[in-house]
């Protein structure tokens, strides 16, 4: 199949009469629907969802670069993020314009290389504590990998950014985030959402339960802000954390962040900073079990670099295969499997007219499999991420952290915690697939293994 839509031609895609059928398919499984559209029509697909406001599916690395980087000023977070906005408010992920710029300026320094590097000892201690629970389990026990990874990454974010011990409330927050994602996903598939967002949300099944979930998270968040530890001695950095920065921030007129903005930011970081990394760690465990040669190489690297001791910051650069494995897991199962934007003004992509108000979906899941950039795209092959393995690969063929100014602020944080977690897990255990094998991905806001992931624990 030719992937590119020739310039100047009307883009390929289903006709208006096929839209109801397509909406039903999106409702059932949006990932399969996107893959189906790509296979049938190529890498620039136009779907006439609403009159004058079509949906474009863009799967080529050059499209990703166009929307996320080259013409980023013309694109804002899509209306499909509205269900998320109800939960995250105007936090960094969902805000726009000057408000977003101000927040990003305030928060970015907290994620500098120096600051984030300082989190490594705390991350390692938390990972060690989490894995000790598995050490007590008998060989052959079934462990809940996705749940453990979720609690692990939530605990790390809580401690690093908010100086809070979330081990007690963690399971509640984690379950709430999952509930929020499920609801947001159902809402995003509600055909009423785009023309009538409020009605779309209220008519989505589970709306009431979901409001309850939001309130439960709000309680935890309010408690976090109220319990701000003043001494800070037991904080990882020994210095100021994100919560301090938010509490101390002042607008140009000298006023502090209001309680609503503070709440939105905390909820945003609890969500964006934990479920994503947890999902990658979960898929990584699963892929390693399915590819024993890659796992053996990982075990050898971890032994050669660490000789049985805990990882330190200086080791991170030397755990080259470990990081390649994580990148390959993110290529195949990018947590944010689709990124969506609305066009502010008219644009042209590959010679195709994109009217203002169109929604553009750029799915990393499909960009990461585009044959122009990836050989054997469906295969698991971490060596493609070894240094100098693919000098000519377009930069935006790999966009697990998005791109441009709205790219992930926590990417280094995530890479450090995930590298340490995989290395420490490999030192102690080997995880085997339980009957049923590799689960199918479930496209919610993040791409989770359907039904969670349980694996068989083997001690090394
Ligand atoms: C493997 C882990 C992670 C992945 C794959 C990931 C992916 C992404 C992606 C794709 C975006 C852009 C979304 C869009 O363009 O619509 C994003 C934004 C963001 N991420 Fe991450 N993320 C990860 C970990 C983290 C962590 C650990 C944190 C915080 C500690 C974090 C905080 C954020 C925030 C606040 C934004 C919004 C940035 C902005 O719009 O200015 N993420 N992330």
UniProtKB/TrEMBL annotation:
Q: Which CDD domains match?
A: CYP132-like
The organism's superkingdom is given as Bacteria
Cite the Gene3D superfamilies for this sequence: Cytochrome P450 (1.10.630.10)
SUPFAM superfamilies linked: Cytochrome P450 (SSF48264)
Q: Which Pfam families match?
A: p450
Q: Which InterPro entries match?
A: Cyt_P450, Cyt_P450_CS, Cyt_P450_E_grp-I, Cyt_P450_sf, Cytochrome_P450_Monoox
What does the UniProt keyword field contain?
Answer: Heme, Iron, Metal-binding, Monooxygenase, Oxidoreductase
Q: Which family does it belong to?
A: Belongs to the cytochrome P450 family.
Write down the PANTHER family for this protein, in alphabetical order.
BIFUNCTIONAL ALBAFLAVENONE MONOOXYGENASE_TERPENE SYNTHASE, CYTOCHROME P450 FAMILY 4
Question: What's the protein here called?
Answer: Cytochrome P450
Task: Provide the species name.
Answer: Streptomyces spirodelae
